[in-house]
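Lecture 7 notes: from sequence to structure.

We start with a single chain of 222 residues. Read the sequence below before looking at the structure.
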Amino acid sequence: MKDKSRKNWLSWLWFLLLIPSVVLNIFLYQKSQKKEGGISVIGILDGDTLVLEGKVRLRLRQVDAPELDFCGGKEAKELLKTLTEDKRVLVREEILDQRGRPMALIYVGETLVNLEMLKGGWVRYHADQTSKKGVLREAFEKAKTEGKGIFSPLCYQKENPQNPNCRIKGNIDKNSGLKKYYFPGCAQYEFTIIEKDLGESWFCREEEAGKAGFNRAETCPK
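Now the structure, written as tokens:
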């Protein structure tokens, strides 16, 4: 009972601490929205997050960029920088995510930045209910089909171009997040694709894969 009470108390404490942050973000965000001609971009944190005047962080809806230290992360940030740096953006269809952070469709003039990011191929489509979800998903699928950005051989690999002798595939399940590795002889090995923008990787030895948090797949021979 004590553990349960402690967990409930911690949950309420976390909720109470979150409220001021949410309120402050809403206040700054709404204040910035009232400015005519858009809101100035004062910084780019990564491939899907801007910093607006008032130091409000704003994420792009329906866009997921790689972490900066993953394949494509720096390229995604550079593309967003090219599209928005030192410019004024129009914010449309804004919402707050579960952590109280603003998210929106972003325009520079008539250009939908979210769409341009997906066209460039350096970000993934994230399912969401916006008026542009159809064209955004279509742009993502086209970039994937054409092998752009994170779907080029730079990040999307069935063979290891850097070191062909290191053939162990470290794969992350998109639904469960479980990390497994496959080596030649494992069922599914030939069909497993390394998507380095998601943090998947190649290994030379099983010990290396284990140290990186990957476990031997059940379908592999012992």
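The chain has a mean pLDDT of 89. Keep this in mind for problem set 3.
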